[in-house]
Amino acid sequence: MVFHYLKVVKTLKLLSCGKLFDFTFLRIIGFLVINGFVRSVDCDGGKLIINGVYIPYRSGRELASDTELLLKIMGLPLKFKAIRRSIYQVVIDYRRFDPRDKVIVDIGAYIGDSALYFAYKGAKLVIAVEPHPEAYFEMLENIKLNGYGGKIIPINAAIGSRHGCVDARGSVITTLTQYYTPSTKASDCAIRVITLEDLIKAFNLNKETTLKMDCEGCEFDVMLNDYEHVRLFRELIFEYHSYAVNRPVNDLLNVLGRDYKCDIKGNKDLGIMHCVRK
Q1: Hey, how many other C-beta atoms are within 10 angstroms of the C-beta on 65?
Q2: Side by side, which strands form the sheet with 260-266?
Q3: pLDDT for the residue 242
Q4: What is the pairing mode between strands 235-241 and 210-213?
Q5: CA-to-CA distance for 71 and 79, rounded, in angstroms?
Q6: Global pTM?
Q7: How far is the CA of 180 from the CAs of 95, 149, 172, 271, in angstroms?
């Protein structure tokens, strides 16, 4: 990592005609380099150009605040109401996943970042399920900003192995890393819990559908307790959060191995799994 940063620093010093960028700026560009998003760096009359995109800033704070510019550098010209760390993480996590012409059920859609990414990359339809009210309404705004209302169907609900409800309180920031434990008592919460069976029936989903999950632990409940419906999906791509539910990732692998060939990237506590039906 140090080597990458030094390489970036040297390159930018040369291309900026002797003018230095601040450390925050270099960290951002270093992040892009390390994750494979920088294809070309040029200088035109003292102007820095990355991947053909002119960079008008030398301050890292200014660069970080321009989400649209950063996404354009990353090859994702989308608009968002607010800057969220998850936007960049989505591009990193799913850039090797090909959503073209696929119907995708997106569990844990948050502000619509992954749904918009899939839609932009050519998904046929994305059913985006998000329990947190504030994140859900931000997703609605982001869908409208990008004109993808015809490709993304937003649903304000949580997913589980059985019906119930969750108490999805907290801020739109804290919900990003929070697992909501389902309850069967309506007085405990306000957001409904639906099942995969509900979605399969409501949208007449066939066995070629892809299931994406990033729900901070709910994947264990759904996959271990409702596998009969999980196995109806051709492809699975999901984050596992063993630390959140105190269950080893092998519990998932033992079940999924019956019908799927899975590739895993991460450690025993957190990672991403991509599974395709055998």
Answers
A1: 12
A2: 152-155, 125-129, 103-107, 210-213, 235-241, 270-277, 260-266
A3: 94
A4: parallel
A5: 9
A6: 0.87
A7: 28, 28, 14, 19
